[in-house]
Design brief:
With about 600 residues, the chain is mainly beta. It folds into five domains: about 5-110, membrane protein fhac (Ubiquitin-like (UB roll)), CATH 3.10.20; about 120-195, membrane protein fhac (Ubiquitin-like (UB roll), Roll); about 200-270, Ubiquitin-like (UB roll) (Roll), CATH 3.10.20.310; about 275-325; about 330-595, Beta Barrel (Porin). Helix content is about 15%, strand content about 45%. The protein has seven helices and 25 strands. The strands form four sheets. A 16-stranded antiparallel beta sheet has the order 10-11-12-13-14-15-16-17-18-19-20-21-22-23-24-25, with no helix packed on it. A three-stranded mixed beta sheet has the order 1-3-2. A hairpin with a 2-residue loop joins strand 23 (about 555-565) and strand 24. The chain starts with a helix and ends with a strand. The relative contact order is 0.06.
Length: about 600
């Protein structure tokens, strides 16, 4: 038994005895009041605490003392030092002060860091395909750097990946470290065994039951006869996952039938998903109130990866039915085509609308995160129950338009993003040579950014700016095509669609220019599935861009609660109207599903 473990066992017995005397309950655990380090200079106390599971108790975050865990924590701290060049690091005096009154312990951990060992020289052996200087350029280690084991491991991975990118699948790299404990200097040698450079021989696919073989082959980024590039194997595996057709995909190189090391067979092992599903969802939102949706989707029509679906939804704002068809490889090209048809009834604050029509979209990815698309939109709408006092035209708008859109999306999760950005710019031309009843142009730019602040907090921001205008003989834009703002996903301190121009009766009439800026939203986990948020929103809608002034911008600040349930994020937000008008409330409460942005 080590001295550290022996000391912890004795302290554990004392803690238990103290807890028994204070509480008369041997099963009650001792809480950790504080954790402090002494003797550390190379790393901050916060950095060292981050290595430990034994933490100081905080509000809603109790922390109990467990001797076995504490022993592992001490070993982890010393291992961290030694892995980062402090080879002589050791524990000094470590004390645990027991408070039997409130059943807690204060921990002080002493550290002897010792001298830092640095790299004296780096040598490469066994390489023929790459020169010494080339191999050294692959790694981050340099002479006089601290001897950090993680960087040595990273160097091995980097050398292996560069060789694997050039067909050396069976290469091995072995690091050898020789330390002079007196001078605190180390020699680092990398021993490379290149073996053979391999090309792709044959490609085999297993596990296909419904999906046609060409659906898999067209996603591959390698061909028979080419030298194996490991990144192409990984990217092909990722592309197959992203089709949404498969539960699992594994791609690996295996020996060929004649065991020729210069050629490898590529084995693709696949497990297919169920191609059809029915989804039923029920929910409640402050604007839509009770809402429901039923979807029937087929994700692999006749094994071709084409998708079809039909959905019916209803709430107090919108009711409708929609059908969709998608072909990810239109006419055998990488262009994806989508057809969407719908019939919809909407009850908005200023009007009711009955709309039917659809959209045809053709697009393709320019990179793993960037997509370009072109759409043709055709919609016929019947407006009724118009409450806008000065509005008595465009009762039956017929929209025929072209939309060009470019998007870039690096978010880690579309519905509850922790990090990443989203950028979108869409431009629409309606009418003119496309016919239809209305002629206008519209441009919308959207930007979102998410940044993780540790394991429990996320900082997000979203910005949207939209401009539109009519031209030709048209002077007005239909009510259902205008910009509106205010509500649970824009400015949360205001009523639904009540930010912007209003008529004499207080009904929203929409506008041609809009800015909505969710300035910031800080989301933080509080306890298990419960979380909280604070936010600031700003924005407005103007009749046209000429009437827009920064002094008109409306603001709200607010607080929110989040429930991370198995069916999604439940959200309760209260926004305070910073400067309410004469007929405006001082704030609004919104309940809904999903994040605001």
């Amino acid at each position: 038994m080590s001295r550290v473990r022996f000391g912890i066992v004795i302290i554990s017995a004392l803690l238990t005895l103290g807890a028994n005397q204070a509480c008369g309950n041997a099963s009650e655990k001792v809480s950790v009041r504080s954790v402090r380090f002494e003797g550390n200079s190379a790393y901050t106390e916060g950095r060292l605490k981050g290595l430990m599971l034994t933490r100081q108790a905080a509000f809603l975050s109790p922390s109990k003392f467990h001797p076995e865990i504490f022993e592992d924590d001490l070993n982890n701290v010393i291992m961290f030092y030694r892995q980062n060049g402090y080879l002589e690091a050791a524990l000094a005096d470590t004390s645990l002060s027991i408070d039997t009154v409130d059943n807690s312990v204060n921990i002080v951990i002493g550290i002897k860091e010792g001298e830092l060992t640095r790299i004296e020289d780096i040598t490469i052996f066994g390489n023929e395909f790459f020169s010494d200087s080339m191999v050294l350029s692959f790694i981050k280690l340099r002479r006089d750097d601290p001897l950090k084991r993680p960087l040595i491991e990273d160097a091995v991975s980097s050398i292996l990946s560069r060789y694997a990118e050039n067909g050396f699948i069976d290469v091995s790299v072995t690091p050898e470290v020789k330390v002079n404990s007196e001078s605190h200097l180390a020699m680092v040698d990398f021993l490379i065994k290149e073996r053979y450079r391999s090309a792709v021989d044959s490609i085999a696919v297993t596990g296909l039951e419904k999906t046609r073989r060409h659906v898999v082959k067209r996603e591959l980024q390698f061909r028979s006869g080419e030298y194996i590039k490991y990144s192409r194997l990984l990217n092909s595996q990722r592309s197959l996952y992203l089709t949404g057709l498969f539960e699992s995909v594994f791609i690996r190189a295996v020996p060929n039938a004649v065991n020729d090391s210069t050629k490898k067979n590529i084995l693709i092992e696949i497990r297919e998903k169920e191609s059809s599903e029915i989804a039923v969802s029920l929910g409640y939102g402050s604007v839509e109130r009770i809402r429901g949706r039923i979807e029937l989707n087929t994700g692999n029509l006749r094994g071709t990866a084409r998708k079809t679906g039909i959905a019916v939804e209803a709430n107090f704002i919108k009711q409708g039915i929609a059908a969709s068809f998608s072909d990810p490889w239109t006419f055998g090209t990488r262009w994806q085509s989508d057809l969407n048809l719908f019939f919809q009834l909407r009850q908005e604050p200023g009007y009711d609308a009955r709309t039917y029509g659809g959209k045809i979209t053709v697009g393709r990815k320019l990179s793993p995160f960037t997509k370009l698309s072109q759409s043709y939109r055709f919609e016929n709408t019947k407006l009724s129950d118009i409450k806008i006092s000065e509005q008595a035209l465009d009762i039956d708008p017929r929209i025929r338009s072209l939309i060009l859109a470019l998007s870039h999306d690096t978010r880690d999760n579309l519905f509850n993003s922790q990090k990443g950005i989203y950028l979108s710019w869409s431009n629409e031309l309606a009418g003119s040579f496309l016919k239809g009843s209305n002629t206008f142009v519209r441009s919308i730019l959207i930007a979102k950014h998410f940044r993780s602040l540790g394991r429990e907090s996320v900082l997000g921001s979203a910005f949207e700016i939209g401009w539109m205008d009519s031209f030709g003989s048209d002077e007005e834009i239909p009510l259902n095509e205008r910009f509106y703002s205010g509500g649970p996903t824009s400015l949360r301190g205001f009523g639904y669609q009540l930010v912007g121009p209003l008529d004499a009766e207080g009904e929203p009439i929409g506008g041609k220019f809009k800015i909505v800026w969710n300035v910031l939203e800080l989301r933080r986990s509080i306890y298990k599935i419960f979380g909280g948020a604070v936010f600031i929103d700003a924005g407005d809608v103007w009749t046209n861009i000429k009437s827009a002034h920064l002094k008109d911008i409306r603001f709200d600040v607010g607080l929110g609660l989040r429930l991370n349930s198995p069916i999604g994020i439940a959200r309760l937000d209260y926004g305070f109207n910073v400067d309410p008008g004469a007929d405006e409330a001082s704030g609004k409460l919104y309940l809904g599903m999903g994040q605001a942005f």
